[in-house]
Design a protein that fits this description.
Distance between the termini: 33 Å
Largest sheet: 5 strands, parallel
Number of strands: 5
CATH class: Alpha Beta
CATH superfamily: HUPs
Low-confidence stretches: 8-12
Oligomer: single chain
CATH topology: Rossmann fold
Number of helices: 6
Structural class: alpha/beta
Radius of gyration: 18 Å
Strand content: 15-25%
Shape: globular
Mean pLDDT: 89
Number of domains: 1
Amino acid sequence: MPGTEESAAASSAAKRDRIFLVVVDDSAERAVALRYACLRARKGGGRVALLRVIEPVGLVEWAGVGVMMQEERREEAEKMLSGLAAEVNEITGGFPILIIREGEARDELLKLLEEDPRISILVLAMAPGSGGPGPLITALTGRYANRLSVPLTLVPGALDEKELDRVT
């Protein structure tokens, strides 16, 4: 049946086009979100995208110093993403999409979701302990929830590799 083959091909293409976005910050739980997204992409088809948002340099007396500081932050972000890309490739067998933006993490994330229709799922991990889920999750599940254009997957930040393998 030709229609069935076309449907299967379209479904397969849709899975390959599914992008799991992980916000790369300096939190410990970032590793849990990254591993979860990689396992989901590997097992269910799709790609991983990594977003690193660097804060803009504040007022600096000398313009050249500000430019140097911003270049250093960007180089650090590129180095971090490069290391994580190798990890993603090892788990998924494919290289992630790497995105660096400058500004407030919440605002840049929401802009990216509006601009890139390929992103299918946002994966964030909650901070373990009693301090709350973290400021980004709090914002995205509260005041800014109506601006999310994709499903938000919240992963408990205390999950270990064995538990992540079990739930994906």
